[in-house]
């Protein structure tokens, strides 16, 4: 992501401290610059663009605030007002606010796409967010209550209309015995004496009650669905409710929520209480589904290191991740540098053709290449075994060590063009005199390369190598498309294998290819990855400073 | 002067903002004022959002238009990637940004219920008009959650030019297949079944497994699966495991033959048999192969029961339009016309019995698959199922490759699954 994003507004009218461009600048020279009085056509366009863009931004912000007021989101409202005000203040001002004009877009994108994501992952790492703990407690209570409503087996259906009296909704329906009945959630069903029936014999009106039209019903769908009308004074008889406002059925609650004690009680009298782990559980350990999301402190981190199913494989996966990242960088850099050096030779002919050929793999999307290579490496039908090796059945992707080799090999194929480009650029920027001087002093080609070119090359490429390390550390595409991390380890029940990197392991845990989704644990592991990559990068960048001293 | 220009600019910015706001909001006002007058409660927006895949979207559109004409409610179809739609649904519903209705295979239902993102619906009399297995598939913990619209299962396709007669059992299939291989140099494989060199394919292998009396989870009397009783590793399962190893050694099963390779080989007439689903039939027809759809052969003596996949419409638990959504499902999608339209785009037999009868009368292939489906069992929807596939497939793969002792490999996989579920 580019952090140098600028808008047209950055070419704002005047830049104090620097002479204004254009023919008039000569007359300003030597004087304190003043705001120009003339408005050139270019700055006019810039000004209008700025005003329109700011206006649109404010409109979006105002709209968002109106929406958020309706949802009682007061903190985000304050944040929106402050941010929008700040942006307006910066772009409408001039002079000392100039640096802000350049910084704001970058900082804004950084906050949205980096800082927020990191903080949110950090937050999730301390929760039990995952399968079974997906939403809020209120949602869980609603879902358990709704699932606890059971239609009384073989009970009749009632054709109904939704009616209203004094603002309270009721159901008007035809009982199986032909009587027309009406009731509300407080008043059990009573027989209506003088109902209006439509042509199909369905009751559509009763004296004293207003019948809701379809559009009225659709405007109050939540109320209609939640409406329960007891059949009689005895709650054991059950109640009527309707999903579609035209047919009602008799239901009974198999499980009831008591708000005062925050417990569920089922028909057998078993009480389910909030067990502090984001779920309702009975005394003998029976758990109601679904649960809800709560914060669990460092539990996820502890699990990553103490659960034998995770900690053993985690260690092996970490070692392999480092091996994969380091070897990937080393092999791609070596091959890229070699080709760059060869193709940079002054006596080489047709260099352009070779260069195009060499960077071709760079043009394919990595995930596509992964799939293609997986087909090429099929033990029996793949091109490599069938054609190149004359029918040998080499298990490229299914033997642990061969699979690791294959992954590295394919990644080399995918990655060397980048290194080739980088090295070609760096080599071409090296001053030729250095090499000549070395030659005059009697140095051979190897010495020139070893003592002159390589150290100079590393000055400019070392930061890219570190970036490449970080990229390969999290090189999801190659692994997932080629081997999916398999062949599997056989000492863990998790779906983790010999070629899994930390990032693919995190993905599998997060999206449940080995059982339930567990976003909490996956986020905790992501944070560990972040710490590892950050630590390696910091150390490596420190080391590259010493390289710069060669200059 | 400086001040004047800046305040002017600020004023113009404010003006632009107001213009933009009024331009955007005026249409909303006009639309919502009507309902807010008549209803005391805050009016819910009169739009049903439905998540479906690209293939099904055109079939639902005319039905949605009819629904809008009758009720004034717009149905907004959002085309989603079907391989990840269940994940999106589970994470979006709690935020309130999910759809009102989702089209999904029934085997995700367990995860939906576990996460509280779907709402039960009462099908009422409609339930009697749907195939029993379809309703059973969308039932979870005694509650019905969806409106099924199609059922799919695998069958045994036979190239009639190579083998003219129906086989009696799986041994007969192998014998006939091998005879065909010997008789014709072009024929390379006695039997095809799409596998994967990295994972097996327990779904396609399941009819062979059930014919040994082995299943993955025990079923309750009402057909629901009991997650506490994993039957995968039992004696019948071990017998199946031994058979898998034999088939692997004989070359009947080959882990390197992926689904794509198998289809291609059958299209070229390189094998007389191919165990696959209705989704591959159009391609085989186009390739000009004369085929017959045979019942699934029994390998272990008991009936070969395939897994049934049921596609259904589900209603979100956080939908604010439950009445409208229920109406749309029970009154508009549980109709012959709707189910046939969905059949026309998807090619999977309808779940509504009358629609199925009509389609089956016109299309012998549909009837053949449908009849085989009568013996099938719904794929378990319990969330525990997610923990089973990897070990199950891995064990089959290992045996096909001829590695390890069948009973050991099989019980180990079952033990693995058992410890994962707990």
Q: Can you walk me through this structure?
A:
Chain B: This is Carbohydrate ABC transporter substrate-binding protein (CUT1 family). Chain B: One of its GO terms (biological process) is maltose transport. Chain B: InterPro entries: Maltose/Cyclodextrin-bd, SBP. The complex is a heterodimer of chains A (551) and B (422). Chain A has 18 helices and 15 strands. In chain A, helix 14 packs across helix 15 and helix 15 packs antiparallel against helix 18. Chain A has three domains: 94 residues, no CATH class; 117 residues, no CATH class; 246 residues, MetI-like (MetI-like fold). Chain A has 551 residues and is α+β, with helices and mostly antiparallel strands. With 422 residues, chain B is α/β, with parallel strands linked by helices. Chain B folds into two domains: 176 residues, D-Maltodextrin-Binding Protein, domain 2 (3-Layer(aba) Sandwich); 191 residues, Periplasmic binding protein-like II (D-Maltodextrin-Binding Protein, domain 2). Helix content of chain B is 48%, strand content 16%. Chain B has 17 helices and 15 strands. In chain B, strands 1, 2, 3, 4, 7, 14 and 15 form a seven-stranded mixed beta sheet that branches. A four-stranded mixed beta sheet of chain B has the order 9-12-8-13. In chain B, helix 9 packs across helix 16, helix 9 crosses helix 17 and helix 16 packs antiparallel against helix 17. Chain B is globular. The termini of chain B are far apart. The interface between A and B is large, with 73 and 78 residues.
